[in-house]
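Appendix B. Extra example for self-study. Work through it before the problem class; the solution is given directly after the inputs so you can check yourself.
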Amino acid sequence: MSERDVVIRVEGLHKRFGRLEVVKGVDLDLHKGEVVVVFGRSGSGKSTVLRCVNFLDDPTQGTIEVAGMRLSGGFRSRRKREQIRQLRLHVGMVFQQFNLFPHMTALENVRVAPICAGLKDNRIRATELLEQVGLADKANEHPIRLSGGQQQRVAIARALAMQPDAMLFDEPTSALDPELIGEVLAVMKSLATDLHMPMIVVTHEMGFAREVADRMLFFHEGVVWEEGPPEQVFESTQKPETRKFLDAVL
Amino acid sequence: MTSEGGRLERLALAGARVPFRLKVAAVWVVIFAVLVFFFWVAQFDTEWMRDNFTYIAKGLQFTLYIAVGGIVLAVVLALLGALARISSNSIAYGISGFYVSFFRGTPLIVQMFLIYLALPQVGLNLHDQVPDLFPQTLANQLVLDAAVAGTLALGLNYGAYMTEIFRAGIQSVAAGQGEAADALGMTYRQKMRRVVLPQAFRVIIPPTGNEFIAMLKDTALVSFLGVSVAQAEIFRRAQLVGRADFKNLEALLVAAALYWALTIVFTFFQRRLEARMSRGYIRTQDLTAASAEEQKHGGGGGSIG
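Solution. Structure tokens for the complete assembly:
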């Protein structure tokens, strides 16, 4: 893949919380149309890397490059805050706990950010997006009236409404009852295969990874321990730690 | 079993069938009857009360002006104070900390007199010392009308208490909400206005209603600043007319009834507002019905493209 196909570039990322170093030097490129699945034990730093990409966590060291903007962590001046906001406009994020706005209907949830950004036709776009995630009939419901799976699908539509260059999924199905996981994964799969949306997915859903991922990264002790296409990671695992983890979750 | 015991039992059973609220209402009626009896024994002058009711009730206007002015000021100050309290800006944090500490740490009545009596003195002295920087016109502006000084003091004092209410309310909004707004590229203002504050207000409104109701009654303190009759609120008017005719009990009772009625009316509005604010937090349809519906539709994820 060529240099100009890179959508998100993470270089030399370190993240320390107090004295605890959670991420110890991670490099990661996400290319156009690529699906990268990140997996690993809890505490291996996988979610932190994702949160550093859009500066929800501030990188201790290293740089993040999105849409031609290259930013590092540290003190946030007024100018820096605006740069971070611009960067975030290019990256959609879906959270483990959905984080829908409870005081708004599904439609309002999807519309609010485009309205803030002054995007035109936000109502039509929002209605279309809810249709795409199969929730057109729930447009006027508040989140509390929706199941977990439905809430997460609204959250995906909400992130897509900003027309991002790439999507970040932070354990999108971990808070869901088992019978609701499928509907969310189906939406994510069609996002990847039909719309070729580049995405980094932190997940334990190995079936999804095998089916959809172009590349898999195994995180261990704050670094990328093993990396490769799904067939390689599953069939000819290189590292014993990866094997052990896979045996535990499969 | 005697027939007497049977009758008592039937009475108890009949009693259990009377709705709880009806019994409570009966208790209130009895208390009122007892009070009326005592007032009758104390020979109070109902005729005087009727004749002077409108005079005292005219004070409602100023009581409401002061209370509404005070609460509006308090809400603005509390919001600013709370945002400063949670900000990383040391200047804003310091100012709001000093404000809350001073206005919670000193009596309201002292603050009223400070604003009413001490400010003009400060103005005059400043004018004497630095007449160029502090012209007479500016000094004159520090001489406040009693009602204005009272409203200011109420707003400042209640704003200090409410800063803590607002801070707690804003911090009660889950961290994920702010993160979601950030991740969507909202500015700080957009995040606050559209996401955080609407959720915080749900938590803030009930205690703010309580503060307003408390403030309604603290407006009576303004009368100590010696307001002119033209601007007198309920308590001042009751005192004036009660003393003149030596009908203190009657006058104060009228005042008490007026404050009480105001409180009841505002409590009613507060309840309605709270019910409205809980939209999006109560499932109007019960859970079982919603999940049954989901089963029917199969809950399958739609496709994109």
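Self-check: Residues 45-278 of chain B form a domain with the MetI-like fold fold (CATH 1.10.3720.10). If your reasoning did not lead you there, revisit section 3.
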